[in-house]
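User: Please predict the structure of the protein below. I'd like the answer in structure-token form so I can feed it into my own downstream comparison script.

Assistant: Understood. Taking the following sequence of 299 residues as input:
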Amino acid sequence: MPKQIIAIIIFCSITKSYSQFDGSLFSFNYTLAPIGSDDFDFYKTSINFNVPIKLKKGILINSFGVNHYELNYENSMPFTTDDLNEFNGFKYSLMYVYPINDKWNVSGRLGVSAISNFTSGLSSDDLLFNSGAFVSKKGGTKEKPSRLMLGVGYSAISGKPRILPLISYTKKVSDKFSYGIGFPNLFAKYNMNERSSLKTSIWMNGFYANLSNPVVVDTYNEAEKASLTAISLGLEYEYWMDKFWAITFKTGYSMYNKYELEDVSKNIVYEFEAGSKPYFSTGVKFSLSKLFNKNKNDK
């Protein structure tokens, strides 16, 4: 048996018992939101890796990610936006999942990210730390499992670093339908067949980026940080090319957007007009979730 297949089976046996890891080892996504009646259009490219490591008791999940944000502005901006055209983010987090028993487990996460326009290289001001603590319980039956997760975390997912709750309940209703409710996202998924599925969801995301050099907004104000917050509704089509590789296509509507510049004292010095707009996204991922499901069904 090829070494790659052996490694995949080992990963499967490691991770199938821990609900916080969904089996995705690699993903790539490209998102665009064309300019509408607001001040800018938005493009995002993201690459993510997850590396699980089995311990004697529990599992460590190493997560690595790279994000590239590109924004294009209308010509009517009252100040120069050259240093606001591109932002890059690099992130790493380590999660430890500890099983208390067959139903309960607890987990903790620590992470660090560097998000900036990097016009003057990397500095300590570019760094953001995040953390979280969670408890989850498995329920339901083998055919119709459910999971309840409760926790709290400190992150910039809402556009600014703050403490946020994590509340999630997911349920498989049948082989065709499953759903999840909570914060920061909720979804409903319909499996059309073994290869294809449709998923509708609402979620929040954003970034909080350092500006390497202050951006002069007007005579009295300089911006040191850029904050973007979005709440989106989307419909995603997923197609599995084989047991491990899937492609995704998503379209939807960004219902709420807020894009602001802050000074060194965290005061808002400029708020862009950020109206609702459509968006489009496509991606590819390498995941073990199909293998998980097959193994569980075979038992």
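That's the full token string. The chain has a mean pLDDT of 88.
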